[in-house]
Design brief:
The structure is a homodimer. Chain A is α/β, with parallel strands linked by helices. Chain A has two domains: 1-69, 2,3-Dihydroxybiphenyl 1,2-Dioxygenase, domain 1 (Roll), CATH 3.10.180; 70-130, 2,3-Dihydroxybiphenyl 1,2-Dioxygenase, domain 1 (Roll), CATH 3.10.180. Chain A is built from two helices and nine strands. In chain A, the strands form two sheets. In chain A, strands 1-4-3-2 form a four-stranded mixed sheet, with helices on one face. In chain A, strands 6-9-8-7 form a four-stranded mixed sheet, covered by helices on one side. In chain A, strand 2 (31-35) and strand 3 (39-44) form a beta hairpin. The longest helix of chain A has 11 residues, at 16-26. The radius of gyration of chain A is 15 Å and the shape is globular. Strand 6 (73-78) of chain A pairs antiparallel with strand 1 (3-13) of chain B, so a sheet runs across the interface. Chains A, B: This is VOC domain-containing protein. Chains A, B: It comes from uncultured Cytophagales bacterium. Chains A, B: Residues 5-125 form the VOC domain.
Chain lengths: 130, 130
């Protein structure tokens, strides 16, 4: 009866091309679905990231309506051996690193914005224990 | 350089006790952190669910500010063998099931609300392929 993981996480965005450029071209996440004017979906390891045009899913009739505004937060997990390379990759994409932290247990993370101002974090595997 | 998973997903809530009653008592997620007036965190398998009092993290000085409103969507993954038991558990908790779906590949999911109206989904492992 245990939950395995959070499989789907959603963000609400304004421009699917810009979102695709960021998550696919800059971060390297595979695109696994797109409906123009409504959504683009990405694979993020064992999880999926669902990016919906803000407001569109509020009108959904068939599926339960959902929506959101603001600058949401989520974190991607990477192997500790890849952490420095991810910092380099983000900097090379011209994205300012907003903050770096070392948490209990010595696990590191850093923060940056997506094009809609959502607050993304890269965390080292091992953080949050298990 | 691959992302392993989305490790942290956030929701913005209004009452930490009510949120704890729901996610911990009703759904069975372990509580892994709480700061009264600010947040309660839950383990959800290999992921963590961070529930922040709406507005509190907008004022953050040390960490990058984030915030959100609306009725956000996220999905928990369970083993196919547990799927029917999860439906029963949700019904037994007095929570209306908003919608049920069978997706490409035959994977099933169902939707229900949390106390803040966030739109939760239980999906069978295997959905979204890999």
């Amino acid at each position: 009866m245990s939950i395995r993981q959070i499989k789907e996480t959603c963000l609400y965005v304004t421009d699917l091309d810009r979102t695709t450029q960021f998550y696919h071209e800059a971060l390297g996440l595979p695109v696994i679905g797109r409906v123009d004017g409504r959504h683009v979906f990405f694979r993020a390891g064992t999880s999926v990231l669902l990016c919906f045009i803000a407001g569109k899913t509020k009108e959904d009739q068939e599926l339960p309506a959902h929506y959101g505004s603001g600058q949401l937060h989520m974190a991607f997990e990477v192997a500790p051996a890849d952490y420095a390379n991810w910092q380099e990759k983000i900097r090379a994409a011209g994205l300012p690193i907003l903050h770096e932290a070392t948490w209990k247990g010595g696990h590191r993370s850093f923060y940056f914005h997506d094009p809609d101002g959502h607050v993304l974090e890269i965390v080292e595997e091992g953080m949050w224990g298990g």
